[in-house]
Please model this.
Amino acid sequence: MTEVYYPIGRLGQPWQAAEKQQWLALQKVQRSYQQDVVAPLASLDAHFERVQYGEVDYQAQSFACYPLYILKSRDWRDDKPLALITGGVHGYETSGVQGALRFAAKHVEGYLADFNLLIAPCISPWAYETINRWNPLAVDPNRSFSGDSASDEARYLREYIQRLGITPLLHIDLHETTDSDNTEFRPAKAARDGTVNTNWNIPDGFYLVGDAERPEPAFQQAIINEVAKVTHIAPPDENGELIGDPMVQPGVINYPKKALGLCGRVTEAPYVTTTEVYPDSPSATSEQCVMAQVTAICAALNFVRQAN
Model:
């Protein structure tokens, strides 16, 4: 493990407004949310209603105003269980966004008869465009899905789901673990918080993060078994860990998701998992990463359909 320091702020002192503005000034638009995410939604009208559940306005920060969309399956019936699929909570994690869209476009028909589906493909559009983990206020949406959220991205999704008044049977949240976690995002977090960062080992391969309060090991294992047919599963490091946490079963660690304010506990769904794909692996292509996300979604749906 190595200590990595960030070039903004002073060691041991949390960022104030000046440091956050200094960080924000370095962020640049590098791709298009409108082109990559919003435009493809128009082709999904046969099976989904496109619902705008909020809007994040960052014009005051010299960026854009972003509509937030969720896909709601058209054949919605009260006698079907609800499955929630989320991507792009961390906008830089590309395969989660593209995996959600690919599933909606190419793989959804086998599930519409048995599930009501909600798919939020890109929860953090500014972060998608700037290839970032945070929003422009230096807030991590994936630590903001509880209480009085400082992230509009998290708050709007949470409020939309609460208004539905339905507890999903399944929630799968699509993520990546990248080399930039160690080179950029973890050092930036430590600088922002006034702490010292110690990098973790980046797992080479796919893994899952279950919920410590409802781990459902058979559910997690069913997903791992199917994804292993598409790409390799991350082995534990020399300490038997993945990203600093004990591997509780092959390819799986558990987090206390509710306590951490993670997207994976935005609801009380009994079946919950977070995917983690490694796009920087020399043994995986970008297409494999997207298909790993799609395969994980299908495997999760197949398991809960058979179990219930």
